[in-house]
Amino acid sequence: MMDSHKQLFSLSCLPLLLLLLSGNMGMQLSEARLQRHEMNYYSPKTLFVFGDSYVDTGNYRINQAGSSWKNPYGETFPGKPAGRFSDGRVLTDYIAKYLGLKSPVPYKFRKVMQQHLKYGMNFAFGGTGVFDTSSKNPNMTIQIDFFKQLIKENVYTTSDLNNSVVYVSVAGNDYNFYLATNGSIEGFPAFIASVVNQTATNLLRIKSLGVRKIVVGGLQPLGCLPSSTATSSFQQCNSTSNDLVVLHNNLLNQAVTKLNQQTNKDNSTFIVLDLFDTFTSVLNHPSTNNIKDPLKPCCVGLSSQDFCGKVDENNVKQYKVCDSPKSAFFWDNLHPTQAGWEAVYKKLQKTSALHQIRY
């Protein structure tokens, strides 16, 4: 698909190339195009993040049930647990890098890391959704309330907001909670629609605060997470789960298209990052990214009751870690390794969606 696009592009550009080679007129056209390109280039100065454990970089409480502040989390980066649900960097670390920014400071540390506030802020809390879940952490509505309050306090100015990008992660906690509380399969499509509608409401609310570009992650293939593939000894994705994900993503794309039509003539205010196709592409071609274990998690509990990071009352590990996290896509039952996120990021770099953040 990519190769055919390149071929079409080169053929369609042939007349223009001939013209550019024909002398002064070519030079003038080239200069005009360069000026137009520079005018369209957008260099965000701040990144704001909302969502869940896929993008949480430290808001999750240290004493809370869960493992992002316990060994072996963070062993690849920064070398110790730092609140990321991975052995290292997560997606928004790479998005910040793409924008030439430092990763935004977690909301929890805003008062002790004030020198970093200029790069933006991360409001994401592991375990949360657009609605309430089993997590006691702030859902996305409350996260946006935090953001609104900081704007009210003039921590971020109109200029900061106008030169910013927002990333919103909706990685499936609402659906996990729906199933855990005996939600019916028959009612699942209607619930998916309500999650997407609430997501769209959140995106619109963020825009109303003065943000220029808002990026939302499409849902990754939940049926390929180790929590789903454990029953097949990490050999096969659950197609039923992935069919529901496709419905979510179709509705999300429709909602974002509608938002763009309603709010912005150039269709670039709201952008969807296709995590389904990028995850699937990496998992289907693992060796391209030097990944040997596409579906098997690197860090696993010793029994079905145990999990990555768990210790018993004598502080004895109830988990084991693979020899090489960089050769595994998944870190634990739900989250990618740093290597997994880097592979996804490299795939995203080849898509138009990531480029739209800058133009």
UniProtKB/TrEMBL annotation:
Coiled coil: none annotated. SUPFAM superfamilies: SGNH hydrolase (SSF52266). GO terms for molecular function: 9,9'-di-cis-zeta-carotene desaturase activity; hydrolase activity, acting on ester bonds. It is an enzyme of class 1 (oxidoreductase). It comes from the Eukaryota. Keywords: Hydrolase, Lipid degradation, Lipid metabolism, Oxidoreductase, Signal. Residues 1-32 form the signal peptide. The keyword Transcription regulation does not apply. Its EC number is 1.3.5.6. One of its GO terms (biological process) is lipid catabolic process. The keyword Hydrolase applies. It holds the Pfam family Lipase_GDSL. Belongs to the 'GDSL' lipolytic enzyme family. This is GDSL esterase/lipase.
